[in-house]
Amino acid sequence: MIVLKFGGSSVADAVCMRQVADLVRAALPESPLVVLSAMGKTTNGLFEAAKAAEAGDLAGAMARQRALMAAHRKAAEDLFEGAAPESLDVALTDLFGELELLLRGVALLRELSPRSMDAIASLGERLSTRIFAAFVGGGWVDARTVLRTDAAFGEAAPQPAAIRALAAQHIGPLLGPGRAVVTQGYIGATEDGLTTTLGRGGSDYSAALFGAALGAAEVQIWTDVEGVLTCDPRIVPEALPIPELSFAEAAELAAFGAKVLHPATIQPAVEARIPVTVRHTQKPQGRFTTISAEVRTGRPITALASRGPVTVLTVSSSRMLAQSGFLARLFEVFGRRGVSVDLVATAEVSVSLTVEADVPLKALQEDLSAFAKVEMHEGRAIIAAVGERLKSTPGLGARLLSSLGDINVEMISMGANEINLSLVVRQEQAAEALRRLHRVLAGSMP
Ligand code: ADP
Ligand code: ASP
Ligand code: MG
Question: Is the dihedral of CA 385, 389, 390, 396 positive or negative?
Fold first, then answer.
């Protein structure tokens, strides 16, 4: 079997869904499992409706609910040219009824827990898959019966062993040549049946999890670009498609902000040795990227990505740094506060590290001040250059750094895996830094 995942822009309206249906039909001999995102920007709309309800603005929340309802009903009408099956109509009415109840509950209590937010966010994928499955025929599976997660609402961690067993039970029997099975990305459920989500952009991750659980021959990520490009095309329009990427390169790119793939996507596929391809829904015959374990590329740098804002913390202690146990004590603070550290660079008397912008800075400062001096710089961005020959290409580091000219680099870190060189710059200079670095990349292509 194969997994085909279509992102929000690929299922944004009836015209897009028809294209997706053509692709799914073409894949029928390969027993496709179709994993869909919510239509277009529906998930954003659901978040906005929930926030309005939380603020006590029930009218605003209901207006957004009605706008979403109108868009989904229109898509269904257009797809079926005015003759949508009654069962679809009933399903949509039920789902929008559920959304209304949830929003009213939030508005009444003026309380939006991550658990309520997940219940609300799940509606996007449940709606898009209902409409699409009715149109394309075949099976429909509620991902919450298969995609078992823990109860970390908003960013739940999947439980692969349970998912494997549940997929065999609920999806396996429906799969077969000539038949499509449709399910939702992004959403899952706890053992108790509470709805969870894998975090924004999580449908890619779902696709990889389903693929690994079912032993897919390939996981296809269908989106609005011709694969993974050498840089985000919105920042560097001349970015080039990358035909082949190694798992390690793709994982680094995703983790450092290449939105085209959810950061965790690659891992289940790597473990199961399943190739992942990234393809353009509107240009199915065009170029695409294959991500697989055994790629040996001759490229010094493969791609660039950036992530921000992040905060840089510089922790210094002339007394303690050289002594054993200092780093342990330092990282214990981050561990205890549940804050993950991205980049680390050490010097004789100080350690610099980056954390996400939304971490509890005050608390960290307090804890760290007990044994060291702390400086914090907010509004920074991490820029990562990724490539399997990054380290072994003489002079490349110098060329990259000198290309930045007057852009100040505040921190440099060479990833332990040798394929990632990360730089920290001010957030407002990140786009220009990417453009300058990309010229070096383009000039070093074989
Ligand atoms: P989907 O809705 O299909 O999941 P996303 O919007 O999540 O699509 O991801 C695709 C987008 O990722 C592209 O439109 C592009 O703007 C952005 N992007 C960022 N970095 C890259 C990159 N290196 N290669 C390709 N696309 C990228
Ligand atoms: N619909 C979800 C989101 O917008 C998941 C996804 O599209 O991958 O974040
Ligand atoms: Mg995405």
Answer: negative
